[in-house]
Amino acid sequence: QVLLVESGGGLVQAGDSLRLSCAASGRTNSGYAMGWCRQAPGKEREVVASIRWDGGTTDYADSVKGRFTISRDNAKNTVYLQMNSLKPEDTAVYYCAAKYMYGRAPIDPNEYDYWGQGTQVTVSS
Asked: Is the model's pLDDT at 51 over the cut of 80?
C-alpha cells in the first residue's frame, strides 16, 4: 500500500503563490501515476494536474493551465504542485492521489486508487 501525506497548504491572498508537496511511503516503485485533485464547496472533485510515472507527460485542468505546475522527484518519492497567481476560486481542499499504471496519468479522479488526507488552500480576495 502507498501512503500519501500532503503539506504546504495555507491562507494566502489573491496573486500569491504556494507550493504543495506530497510525500509517498510504502510500496513506492517507479510505476505510479500521480495527480493533484481539489474539492471545493458545491463542486465535484476534479483533477487539476496529473503527471505520468516518469514525468513524461502532464495534464492540467483549463482553470489552472498556465498558473499551476506539477512536477515529481522520484528519487525523493515526492510530487509537487507549484501554484502561482492564486485566485479566490482556487480555494479548496487539495489532495494528492496515486495509481499504479504506466500510461498517461488519469484526469478522472475516480481512477485513482490512493489518496492523501488533504490540505486546505484558502485564497482571500
From this structure: yes
Q: What is the DSSP string of 32-79?
A: EEEEEEEE-TTS--EEEEEE-TTS--EEE-TTTTTTEEEEEEGGGTEE
Torsion of CA 116, 18, 64, 86, to 10 degrees: 130
What is the C-alpha to C-alpha distance for residues 4 and 6, in angstroms, rounded to an integer?
7
Write out pLDDT tens, residues 61-90.
999 999 999 999 988 899 999 999 999 999
For position 119, what pLDDT does the model report? 98
CA Rg, the chain, in Å? 13
Beta-bridged to residue 80, according to DSSP, are 21, 71
Contact by Cβ (8 Å): 10, 81: no
